[in-house]
Amino acid sequence: QVQLVESGGGLVQAGGSLRLSCAASGSSFSINAMGWFRQAPGKQRELVATITSGGSTNYADSVKGRFTISRDNAKNTVYLQMNSLKPEDTAVYYCNADCIINTTWGQTRQTYWGQGTQVTVSS
After folding, report:
1. Does the chain have fewer CB atoms within 10 Å around its N or its C terminus?
2. What's the mean pLDDT in 40-67?
3. Maximum distance among all alpha carbons in the chain?
């Protein structure tokens, strides 16, 4: 099993910045892609940004140029630097990891989610 623990959310004024972190822990696993998703009240969960183990990134159009995703493979941690925040960025942000789990019977692929961290941007 893999656990994802997020941190760094909070309340910020429009135009401000926040940095989210997500650390993965467990045993006998490796991580392929990691990402951030968000869900605003009354809306579906949406992709914010993803990053592969090799460092290739992908962003939602709404955050391009403002958010930066990065990862530290040695620490199994992914970050999301959010700049120029807007009220419409208000949401619960979830970390996601696509993992390979080593078991007695071989390898299995599993997706894990963090518990979510609230980001609120005031106007």
Report:
1. C
2. 97
3. 53
